[in-house]
Write a structure and sequence with these properties.
Layout (H helix, E strand, L loop, with lengths): L4 E8 L7 H13 L2 E5 L15 H14 L2 E5 L6 H13 L3 E4 L7 E7 L2 E7 L1 H6 L2 E3 L2 H13 L8 H13 L5 H6 L3
Parallel strand pairs: 1-2, 1-3, 3-4, 4-7
Antiparallel strand pairs: 5-6
Helix pairs in contact: 1-5, 2-3
Length: 186
Amino acid sequence: MPKQIVKIYFSGKIHPTPLWREDVCKTLESKSGCKILALDPTKFEPGFDLNHQNAMLLVGRNSYMIQQADFVFVNLTDDISVGGSQEMLIAKHFGIPLIGLAPKEGKFNKSKEVVVGRMYTDFIHPYVKLSCDAIAETVEEVAEFIVSYLKEPKPSKNMGIIDQALVYYQKQHCANDLYLNQKFKT
């Protein structure tokens, strides 16, 4: 029986190790039993002018790849690019499952974190937590999510998460937010 083909769009900072994405694909194939088809925005064939000053071309091409993907895999390095964070939202626009690789003790996944003078334990960055359908500390955990999702698909988070967060804030916390109540007094 042929292996199931899974298309994964690779988002986030381009790793300094040239073969990092290929290594990730090999690990995902080994651990998931699927054939991984990498949709890599850095790859193109000779003769195609991937002009990074042409915003419509670049955003359109990347958005098309995200739209065609089964999953979007975002490498949440400590210095994720602006493009990577936008691609996360584009995945939500299309309702594509977003898997965040956020190693423990990296910028987005910490045992302890102090934010505005307050200590939090098991802290996952709010924008990562809200937008990702799965957060993995290792590539092996990414493979586990893929296998689980393929066996029992669940609806992916979509752009509605932003409206849900807004309504939650307005209903649960806005009345007690004196700072904003003072700013928006008319």
